[in-house]
Structure formats: C-alpha cells, structure tokens
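Bug #77: duplicate submission created two jobs. Keeping one. Sequence:
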Amino acid sequence: MPSSPFFSVVIPTYHRNDLLVKCLDCLAPGRQTIPADQYEVIITDDGCQATAETIVLEYYPWAKWVAGSRLGPASNRNNGAKYAQGEWLVFTDDDCLPDPQWLEAYREAVAAETACLIFEGRVYVDRPRRSFSETAPINELGGYLWSCNFAIHRQLFEFLGGFDDRFPYAAMEDVDLKLRITKSQQKFIFVKRAAVCHPWRYKGGWKQLKKRQESVLLYLSIHPEQLTHLNYRFFIRSFFRTIIVGLNAIQKLNLIEIKELLNEAIYFLRMSILVTTNCHKL
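Kept job's structure:
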C-alpha cells in the first residue's frame, strides 16, 4: 500500500448537501475503477448555517471533511488543497457526478504524458436543454480548464499560488488561473475519458449576473491586457445576440425564460458601458 495517495480529489461545497451526497456516491471505494488507496477525497465546506460534517462522518467515513475559509469558492478550493496528501490535485464541484473511469483516465494520461503537469476533463450534461433559464459549463472539446474538472500537479498548483482568493464568487476564478497557467508557458491536455456529468441548473437571475459583473471587472483590473478581448465590442455583440435569440424564440418562451433573457441583455449592455467608462482605471 502506498504511503500517500496518488490523487487528492478536492470538492468545495456550500449548503448543497443533497447534491454533495450524489457526488460522493460516485467516488466511494469500488465505484471508481482505480483502487481506493490511490486517491483521497477532501470536502472543504464553506457552510455557515449548516455543514456537511455530520453526513460525511456518518455515511462517508472514507472522505475527509474540513471547514472552509468562508471567503468564496476560490479560497475554499485553496483551503482544501492545503490538506491534500496526493501528488496530484483533482478538482470537481459538489454538483458534479464523476464517471467511474474518471480517475483512471487521469492516471493513464499522467503516465502517457510525463512532461505535462495539467490535464482537463470532459464536462457533459445529463439531458437536452429544456429551458433558456438553465445553464451548465459544458466542455466537450477542451480548452476551458473549468474548475469543475481538471487535474494539476500539486507542486505546480502551489507554485502558481492556487486560485486567486480575491474572487469572491464562482465566476472568472478559473479563467484567471488558466490565464496564469498560459503565461507561465505550461500546456494542458484534454482527456475526454476523464469525464464528469454536470446536470443543468437554474441560471440564478439578476443576482447571479451581478456577481459575474463584479468578477469580470475584477479580472480585468488584474489583467488589463484582456480588454483587447473583453471590451465594449464584445459585450455589445453579446447584447445583440441575446436580443436576436429572444426575438426568434419569443412565442415558445415562458415568463421565467423571457425574464432571464432580458436580464442577460441588460447585463451585456451594462458591461459594455462599464468597461468603457472604467477602462482608464483598469
């Protein structure tokens, strides 16, 4: 038996015990196609009103529960990584369902591509989209490095400083990490077999868009050169695309979907103004 696991799976969670248990069921000993002693599972819990500690201790004693930093998902992932004993960190989210061969596929990729220190996996959905009010971070071809499914050598993660704690919400923190990885000239490889299912979820309305607005502006303040891409023209184009989608489907949409599309159109228009008026500060 190895003295330490090869993989440390880090799962941030926050008041979603019903989803977390489904994720943990996919990682139970015998469910993954690699031996249980080759990986550990760390649940880093930002819960304040209630936590998953009791559930983990009672039903998932093979997993490690730790209290989170309560500073948002980026900081929470870093917190979980601090407890890791494995050579490789593998990140997923509490609302994801890893396939049985998830860790085996990463293990095979590590063995085949010995010079590569970062791998990203496939993120797919469980069914066709039913509503414009649903969203999911689909990654079928690679290139995104979504935080819900990637593996990174622990020493490289520590060298990069992990996720940037300044991002308080689940938005742009993985885009920021990907950019820093690219700037460090590290390549990452897409491993399609290392797949997790990410079921559709409600977009979250204007409240979620406000969080994304704050995150994008923070990202641009840290990386002002990205204004060449995330600029006035980008957001205006996004605004018109949203309007066109709404007009083309207006007869099929319900009130919730119409509200979501209007919220997104307002968000893109607002962002086009904000990046223009604040570009001299970024």
